[in-house]
Amino acid sequence: MVDASLTLAASLAEVTRARAWALEQARAAGLGEDDVFALELALAEALTNVVRHAYGGQAPDRGGEDIVLGLRVDADELRITVTDWGHAAPPAQAPEIDLDEPRTGGYGLFLLEQLMDEVRVSPGDGEGTILQMHRRLGVDRP
Amino acid sequence: MDVSTEVEGDVTVVSVTGDVEAGSAPELRDRLDALLADGAQRFVIDLGGVRFMDSAGIATLVQLFKRVRIGHGDVRLCSLQPGVEKIFRLVRLHRVFDTHPDRAAAVASFAAV
Predict the structure, then answer these.
(1) Residue B76 to residue B107: CA distance in whole angstroms
(2) Which end of chain A, N or C, is more open, meaning fewer C-beta atoms within 10 Å of its C-beta?
(3) Low-confidence residues of chain B: pLDDT under 50
(4) Coil vs helix vs strand at B95
(5) Which residue from B21, B65, B93 is facing A44, i.e. has the nearest CB?
(6) What pTM was computed for the model?
(7) What pLDDT score was predicted for residue A95?
């Protein structure tokens, strides 16, 4: 079982580092390949979104403590919490995927909703945003 | 991430190795843009060396797809690892891109047109 957190600066290189960290935690916790895939991709999408949109692609002067990632793995569920202190943006609607005119962006939230059983976005304490995601483990999905 | 290219007849084969994510996708996009500027229209993207791809990687390939379609070219993918195949399915683009088990089959698919 895992109950760990990682503090990150707002940069895409840090997203890669967080993904590697989570992968290690997930493998150590014995997660199945489908669940590992969901964790890794959801983290990449969620953290990239924070770096690009909440922080506008620029790391603020917070001493490299811009994002706190929480990861909790119990026997039958995975919980991810992403806390930032950037600009809160209203949660976008997941777009419809149009096969005749495929989009060149906007897949992030759609993917989070596909990968997780629950995705909740709430305002942080005074500033920023808290993203909470939850996935039941070991469940066969289409 | 590493990107290498080879030309087989009128098909440009782009082999990608490593993770294609928000941090690395711009480099792939720049390489593809340069190939398009040189007149390439028929692409095989060999993803055999890619274990992880996020939506930035997907967006880069969709961009290429849309640009070559204007000139009646096409993009075929090959050698997808399970995680990459899964993200294409999740965003339902497995029905947009022709995928092939290996590079030879992907290149040969252009000859059949």
Answers:
(1) 8
(2) C
(3) none
(4) helix
(5) B21
(6) 0.93
(7) 67
Query: Nearest C-alpha of chain B: how many angstroms from A13?
Result: 7
Kindly list the residues from chain A whose CB atom is less than 8 angstroms away from the CB atom of residue B87. Answer: 41, 111
CB distance A54 to A84 below 8 Å? yes
**ipTM of the complex, rounded to two decimals:** 0.93
Residue A92 pLDDT level (bands cut at 50, 70, 90): low
DSSP A96: P
Residue of B nearest to A107 (CA): B55
Inter-chain residue contact A115 with B90, CB threshold 8 Å: yes
Alpha-carbon gap: A104 to the closest alpha carbon of chain B (Å): 4
pLDDT exceeds cutoff 90 at A100? no
Which CATH number fits the domain A2-136, given the four candidates 3.30.565.10, 2.30.130.10, 3.40.50.2300, 3.30.110.10?
Answer: 3.30.565.10
* Alpha-carbon distance A122 to nearest alpha carbon in chain B (angstroms): 23
Q: Could you give the CA distance from residue B56 to residue A52 in angstroms, rounded to a whole number?
A: 12
Whether A72 and A22 have beta carbons less than 8 Å apart is answered as no
Locate A135 and state its tokens.
């996935």
In this complex, which of B23, B52, B55 lies closest to A111 when CB atoms are compared? B55
Contact status, residue A63 vs residue A10, Cβ threshold 8 Å? no
The reply to whether residue B92 touches residue A104, judged by beta carbons under 8 angstroms, is no
Domains in chain A: boundaries? 2-136
Extract the tokens encoding B104.
Answer: 């030879």
